[in-house]
Amino acid sequence: MADELSVTILATITNGNFKDRVDHGVQTFDQTAIGAASNVVSVGTGEEDVAIGDISTLGWCFVRNLDATNYVTYGPKSSGAMVALGRIEAGEIHALRLEPGITIRWKANTATCLVDLRIFED
Known about the structure:
Blueprint: E1 5-15, E2 18-29, E3 36-43, E4 48-49, E5 58-65, E6 72-78, E7 81-82, E8 86-88, E9 93-97, E10 104-108, E11 113-121
């Protein structure tokens, strides 16, 4: 099979007289092996590895911060520590394709956050 995953990218911004739009439409991607890790994770205020379940080759990752107040910082693990790459504000969603073999770490800012995590096999 082919094109098992579809991702739609559309963003609009209106801030006073500033307006912009990014519409990359729908892109489809192949999934070589069937598999996914899906869970609501409690992310604490100390750095921790993102659990990937039984995924053998990392593919697309979708996360949503379910907390109403606090943010979560994430990034790759280097020499045992996180190199901060991104921040998921309260209620935000992020989508990214992971490099196979990488270890991602994350931590909540001031209080534990629940995060909806979904990682698909590549």
